[in-house]
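Technical annex B. To support the medicinal chemistry partners, we prepared a structural model of the target in complex with pyridoxal-5'-phosphate, based solely on the information shown next.
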Amino acid sequence: MSHVPRTRQINHPLLFEQGAPGLSAAALPESDVPAVKRDGVIPKELLADAPPTLAELGELDVVRHYTRLAHRCFSIDANFYPLGSCTMKYNPRINERVAAMPGFAMLHPWQEDEDVQGLLEMLYRLRVWLAEIAGLAEVTLQPAAGAHGEMTGLMIVNAYHRRRGESRPNVVVPDSAHGTNPATCTACGCAQIKIKARDDGRLDLEDLRANVDESTAALMITNPNTVGIFDNQIDRIAEILHAKGAQLYLDGANMNAVLGIVRPGDFGVDVMHYNTHKTFSTPHGGGGPGAGPVAVAEHLRPFLPVPQVVKRDDGTFAWDHDRPQSIGKVRSFFGQIGVLVRAYAYIRANGCDGLKDASEKAVLAANYVAARLKDRYHMPFPPPYAHEFITIPKFGDSKVTETDIAKRLIDHGVHPPTMSWPIHHCLMIEPTETESLASLDHFVSAMLEIADEIENDPQTVRDAPHTTPVGRLDEVGANRKPLVCWRELRTTNGE
Ligand SMILES: *Cc1c(COP(=O)(O)O)cnc(C)c1O
């Protein structure tokens, strides 16, 4: 099961240490144009004194070097990856095939609409499907990620209030919100009003009522929320907002729990974003890319970004720029097309029943793992959970921290779960629907073994990981002063 080496690996030589003059990975044909002396062609002061000291290696050496490095990385293709809130599900290979089709991959954004009808039809269908899944009126595909979708959504909300001649500077945000929610408020010039959750993880309606008035632009809520609980008061929450003319914004990062089961538009949401790279697959982590389509209710349609992909009466497709109340463009050209193709392929392959099945299994997997861990790991919120859950491990007087448990999981070939978010000292575990029962059981036994170690041998947990090329790093130092190439430094500095 584990792909992590069982013993520490000796550092492998750098490319610079492996190379030898004359080795080459390129086989270029003889030049069929005459050589030109560089003197006089390029000004002297721009010429280097000597060629760059690049390593010279054969192709196989290069392949082995990078394959070896790749095997040192955690990835969804090699390891169970229960990173809460990120939905690290399997990325079907067919998506990659489709995204790489020349008809999608080789287009230029300035091509005429007539030349790219296939792409436009695909995007049009995707936006209609996403609106249907949301139970909302219309979708823009332009935003490049969830956070960018939040910004787009809040700009739309602000445009709507402005259009009605209202000044609404405040946005209400639960204290368990993802950091991007308050950041979005700031980016859109809104003041953030924090409200607390109750002990069962749901919103305190009294607190909400006390904080919503005619100055409220919107509530930004994640549902299922960031502690893995579906807030079943959501229709009443919507009523409280709508009674004061405020909008309900749904952070759709957790849509993987509810596809085909409930539609945000049906429980009162006015505007939401998707994270297609979470819910509808796409290799992500390490910074992208993603896509953050935004769905809006009927009254917000006029404010969607331009251009919008539309179907004309004659059945052809086009970019519509003529939307006078639009907030404008939020991204160059049309959005992250390659990621949108993957989302299209994923939805198309699964169909309605398949999407619902994926969500039901994601929820089942999370509740199964939680049920098997609950005797040894403290669960601060009562089940049932959505597609992820939070535990605050019982540390006793072991001096073990949540970070130590995460590091120890690496020794079991498991990627660390999300740590210390959204509450202190927690681990947030999201197995996703794509893991087999065997890999869920492997994770559970690793966690139970670690629970035993915390009681009997805490030092082993505190010193983890034990099986990786490097052990416990000074995390701040490793980020601020990364030594990616220490042998190089030593040879050039002579120290
Ligand atoms: C991932 C996430 C975001 C941000 O989405 P990006 O696509 O990473 O910009 C926002 N809110 C929640 C709850 C998330 O999990």
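Notes passed to the chemistry partners:
Confidence is low (pLDDT under 50) at residues 1-7, 488-495.
The domain at 94-349 is CATH 3.40.640.10 (Aspartate Aminotransferase; domain 2).
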